[in-house]
Prior knowledge:
Helices cover 60% and strands 9% of the residues. It contains 18 helices and seven strands. It has a five-stranded mixed sheet, with helices on one face. Strands 3-7 form a two-stranded antiparallel ribbon. Helix 15 (327-335) links the parallel strand 1 and strand 2. Helix 2 packs antiparallel against helix 4 and helix 6 (91-108) runs parallel beside helix 8. The longest helix is centred in the middle third of the chain and has 32 residues, at 133-164.
Amino acid sequence: MHYIINKAAFDLFGSWEAVKVLGAILNALGLAIFGFIAFDKIDPRARLSLGILLALCGTTIMWGASLRWYAYFNPLFAVILGIILFSDLSLTRRTLILAAGIVLLFYVNYETLCAAPVLVAAHLLRERKNFRRSDIIILLVAGVAGFALCLPQLLVFIEYARGHGANQTASFLSALSQIAITLVVGNAVFPLSVAAGVYAALIAALGVYFLFVKPKSDIDWIVLIGLTLGTLLMVVTGIAMKPRNSVFLLPLVFLIIASAVAALPPLWARAAIALIAAFQLLGAVNVAWHRDTLKGSFNIDYRGSLATITAWKDQCKGKLIVFNHDSPLNYLLEENSIGSSSVFSPQRGTDIAAHPGDCVVLTKTYAGTLNGDEVATLYRMLDNPALKQVAVKQLSEDRYAAIKSWVGKEPFPQYSIEFVEYDVTSDVTLPAWTGAIKRLDEGQD
């Protein structure tokens, strides 16, 4: 469904940037609606901390400003959760909203298989003392109808999972570590940093206080059970391997943090709120400035990258050829009619004839889905005496490159993107990168 929404939005606004802005707005709106619905139903002392967490949730906005499914899934889940937990609507209406919401979520993404049980559990736990026979019948009928509506998409998912499921999951420990990072410190601040360490200690202390000291209300128990259930499902299935996949659970985490802060003595509560606000503001600033987040590609200055390449094109006497293995940059190059040779087409490209006066740019970025040997082989394709290196330019310094290399056990570049600029000094035929990885895998030159 998100492909259809993206296409409609692109047709309406005429820009993929505008579509990403739409996603960010929807995520901000989803959190705002969740907070609005919850406002009158939570402890007044919890409102400030919950408002700060929702208003400055850089992690949600970072992932929401995207062309991927979570741009629509996360705000929809937040609104449904708010209605299920806090709305004054009748039980029947909330049951129908639950069923319809799960169907919509499932057509956005299969992760609903983990998210739906959270919503169902919250609904059943909230109304566990109020269900009448008629309510149970309505619940069963809504469930059967919802399942029937989801069945076509479920069959598609099963067929897809047979061939691609292994690429979407990871081991128990890997999934657990990733979801812990996302739900404790978020993804808007690099987790192996001093600020993240201090914040993680604060959240851990609040979590212990919430679990073992604070008297828990009915809503506390419902939120805790829902979060535990969602976390277990995400970890057991391995879907939590990708940080973005767990972001939908953050409103539940925020409710627990806010509830714990509300129960603290006033002085401790004010100190906790100040630390929460400072850390969340840091994340929001990181997202606004595209720096120091956990999402490496988000930290790249693509506007500056395009400006650097355009400047080289303007001073080039002949044609400019850009070699790259970064899909967003490749899209920008195509959009701006700048000749490029990339790895993303499965078809073998035509080798490129270059002449004196032409120019070449090699862009070096993180390997991503390629392995180190493949990237090194691509770079060696440009080791040619006809190419004279004239400049090296670097953008988006990664302050945590050394830590990433140590933890990931693979080299991470100090700069997110580097440009090596060449003049062509004699006639030469350069091997195309289009389809190059496929040829390398087949053992061809």
